[in-house]
Design goal:
Elements lengths: L1 E6 L19 E2 L2 E2 H11 L4 E6 L3 H8 L2 E2 L2 E7 L6 H6 L9 E5 L17 E4 L2 E4 L6 E4 L3
Parallel strand pairs: 1-4, 1-7, 4-6
Antiparallel strand pairs: 2-3, 5-6, 7-10, 8-9
Length: about 140
């Protein structure tokens, strides 16, 4: 399955850490945030990583090159940061069918669990939330 990682944002709230690198390259627990994301996606079965890059994109491309732990990486460039939906549109032609989606600036202590049945619903700030869901990873099927 393909995995899309949105990593084009500037990370202005992380300054000064992001003055010379994109937020996905900020180190947490000794490695870049994107490395944590890639590891989790591979654990979930990702066979290809589609990474949307933008701000200081060359730092990401130079670091990971064309594969991560044997999994191929394809980069697309979001020239203007116009939001998450716009970032996702930049990979539209590269996505085959079902894919996983992860924001490239999120880290979870456990890998996200995709496709788990809903155990119940709770309300948090008025929004439904699945119990047992970890992180921000979803599987999307093109209609």
């Amino acid at each position: 399955m393909q995995a899309v990682v949105l990593a084009a944002g500037e990370g202005t709230r992380l300054r000064p850490l992001t003055e010379d690198k994109p937020k996905g390259m900020v180190e947490v627990a000794g490695k870049p945030i994107l490395t944590h994301c890639f590891e989790q996606l591979i654990e979930l079965g990702a066979e290809e990583l589609l990474v949307v890059v933008g701000y200081k994109k060359q730092a990401i491309i130079n670091h990971y090159e064309d594969e991560f732990e044997g999994v191929p990486i394809t980069y697309t460039h979001q020239r203007e940061q116009l939001g998450l939906a716009h970032a996702l549109l930049t990979v539209e032609d590269d996505v085959d069918d079902e894919f996983m989606l992860m924001l490239g600036d999120n880290i979870s202590g456990q890998p996200p669990r995709c496709g788990q049945p809903t155990a119940g619903r709770t309300r948090r700030r008025g929004l439904p939330r699945r119990r047992g869901a970890v992180g921000r990873s979803v599987t999307i099927r093109r209609l």
